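#onboarding

Welcome to the new folks! Below is a worked example of what a typical request in this channel looks like: someone posts a single protein sequence, and someone else replies with the predicted structure as tokens. Don't worry about understanding the tokens yet, we'll cover that in week two.

Example request:
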Amino acid sequence: MEESTNDNIKDSECKLIPIGSPLHKRESLKNEYIDNLSLELLINKNHYKKYLSKKDPEKYKEYQEYQSKLIFYMDEITEITTDLLNDPKKGISRDITETFEQYTKMCIRYLEMKEIENSNENHTGFS
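Example response:
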């Protein structure tokens, strides 16, 4: 195989994907997903909500409904969480128990990382 003069990329690696082909559609969806994920993670939440309301009103509506339900069920969710913290084996439902276990593991990991971060800041004198 011959190497191209541009960054030693082999010619066989530089194939154009025909527009409209299944591979092109799959790559377009993947790129769109990455773009949306980047926006969600990197943009201010208020700006993202404004963007979403204009760009994808259906998804924005789903988000608003989720927020409304979260507020409506907040006390019950807090009670379930407290019950599971006090008795992790409490049988609410398998889905909730498994998800709660993953959630608490992530919380513990986050808190441990914060401890390390704070410890490093205390040792270096930077904050």
